[in-house]
Amino acid sequence: MKYKELKVGLFSAIALVLLYFGFNFLKGHDFFENKKIYYAVYDNIDQLAVSNPVLVNGYAVGRVSHIKILQNKSNHVLVEMEIDADIVIMDSTKAILNSELLGGKSVLLKMGRSTKALKPGDTLKTEVAKGMFDVISETATPVATDLQTTLRKFNVAIDNFSKIFEKLDLLVTKLQPTPGLLNQTLVTTNSNIEGLSASFKNDAEKISVMLEELKPTLANFKVLSDSLKRMHLNETLIKTQHTLASLNQTLTKLKKGDNTMGRLLTEDSLYVNLNKLLINLNELSKNFNTNPNQFLAPLGKSKEKIARDRKKEEEKKKAEPNKN
């Protein structure tokens, strides 16, 4: 009996040990792998829990092994991380607290380019990644601001439209009596037009009667004007005929040549005599210019003396070139 109880107790102990190791293995704790302990301090871990994964580029390299609140440091939260020993953590590495879409939490290690490696037990730099709601909030804030501005402008436009509609209502109210006034004006105008048409009709009838009475007078004026035109035309023709007859007589006399004008037109003796007279006058003027003494002397000079003087002048002119 004691042997059976011993076997049951031993089996239970082994099962509990296996359950413990299996549970920790399922949570990511490997007892047969070397781990390094690092720390990170956050203001708020946003429901980060023990056994949440530690990732590098989406690959799990460790887990959160312990979480502790630091009351002496403004209630900051200390997060202990177990990271594989073959992962080299540099001093520029940041431990980014990340929130997944479905609520899962993890720590992302953003590896830096520094050449100085951290030792186990060192504290990493921390950063909190922006969640989906934070991104939506940041994106929605300017949209909401623009929407508010648009709504304000829309309200102003509606106010302006309401004012315009009020003015239109007032205008329509003022225009309501206008059709009645137009009808009255049309009726008055129609009656005036009828009176004017009747007056024009009477005047037209009177003018028609007057024209009928004036027709004989106009006919007489036409006959009188035709008679006057014929009288003036006959007198003009008679005068023209007399003038042409006189002109014909004059031309006939000129053609006969028995008068002075006829001789001038038909004979050239007058032209020849006039030409000789002009030539003699020209010689006389030249002689007067060259020998004025011959004409201005008290008794004039005889022809012999004039001839002697001319001869002396000619000899004198001939002698002058020889001296030169």
What do you see in this structure?
The chain has about 325 residues and is of the alpha/beta class. It has a domain at about 30-130: Beta Barrel (Elongation Factor Tu (Ef-tu), domain 3). The protein is about 60% helix and about 15% strand. The chain contains seven helices and seven strands, in the order αβββββββαααααα. It has helices spanning about 1-25, 130-175, 180-255, 260-265, 270-290, 295, 305-324, and strands spanning about 35-40, 55, 60-70, 75-85, 95-100, 105-110, 125-130. Strands 1-4-3-2-6-5-7 form a seven-stranded mixed β-barrel. α3 crosses α4 (about 260-265). The chain is elongated, with a radius of gyration of 75 Å. The mean pLDDT is about 75.
- CATH topology of the domain at 32-129: the name is Elongation Factor Tu (Ef-tu), domain 3
* Mean pLDDT value: 76
Radius of gyration: 75 Å
Under CATH at level 1, the class of the domain at 32-129 stands as Mainly Beta
Largest sheet strand order: 1-4-3-2-6-5-7
Q: How large is the count of helical segments?
A: 7
What percentage of the residues does DSSP assign to strands (E)? 15-25%
Per CATH, the architecture of the domain at 32-129 is Beta Barrel
Number of strands: 7
Bin the helical content: 55-70%
